[in-house]
């Protein structure tokens, strides 16, 4: 959780810096819209909301991609470590199909593996 918090802080600082630099650049530039010159400050104010949503959307999609990659690697490691039926086929499937293969592996193999493991530990106790 600490790494996620640091990542959130760093991304927020970068976003604020980007928006501040963007405003400075717009204030110093000549802005032309449809062939006529307009004050760049107004253009920056009009675009700021759209730009913020675009950057925020980018960071959300980036975070989802990172989490998907972590999930994909975890499923490949699980398949490699444990004795499952068709181990090589599952690993090859996950490598070539990416997150889709990892999701299939999770629902077809890993959930059953976890249920069997939890049942065997309660029986042994």
Keywords for this structure?
4 helices, 125 residues, mainly alpha, single chain
Topology:
Layout: H1 2-28, E1 31-33, E2 36-38, H2 40-81, H3 87-97, H4 99-124
Antiparallel strand pairs: 1-2
Helix pairs in contact: 1-2, 2-3, 2-4, 3-4
Mean pLDDT: 78
- Order of adjacent strands in the largest pleated sheet: 1-2
Total number of beta strands: 2
**Sequence stretches where pLDDT stays below 50 over 5 or more residues:** none
Q: Give the % helix.
A: over 70%
Oligomer: single chain
End-to-end CA span: 32 Å
* CA-based gyration radius: 24 Å
The ordered string of helix (H) and strand (E) elements is: HEEHHH
Q: How can the largest sheet be summarized?
A: 2 strands, antiparallel
Write up what this structure looks like.
The chain has 125 residues and is mainly alpha-helical. The two termini are 32 Å apart. It has one domain (2-124). Strands 1-2 form a two-stranded antiparallel sheet. Helix content is 85%, strand content 5%. A hairpin with a 2-residue loop joins β1 (31-33) and β2 (36-38). It has four helices and two strands.
């Amino acid at each position: 959780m600490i790494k996620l918090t640091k990542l959130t802080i760093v991304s927020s600082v970068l976003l604020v810096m980007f928006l501040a630099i963007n405003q400075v650049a717009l204030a110093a530039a000549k802005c032309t819209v449809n062939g006529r010159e307009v004050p760049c400050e107004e253009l920056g104010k009009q675009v700021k909301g759209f730009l913020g949503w675009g950057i925020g959307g980018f960071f959300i999609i980036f975070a989802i991609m990172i989490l998907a990659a972590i999930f994909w690697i975890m499923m490949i490691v699980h398949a490699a470590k444990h004795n499952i039926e068709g181990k090589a086929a599952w690993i090859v499937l996950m490598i070539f199909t990416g997150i889709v293969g990892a999701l299939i592996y999770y629902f077809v193999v890993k959930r059953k593996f976890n249920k069997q493991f939890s049942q065997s530990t309660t029986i042994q106790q």
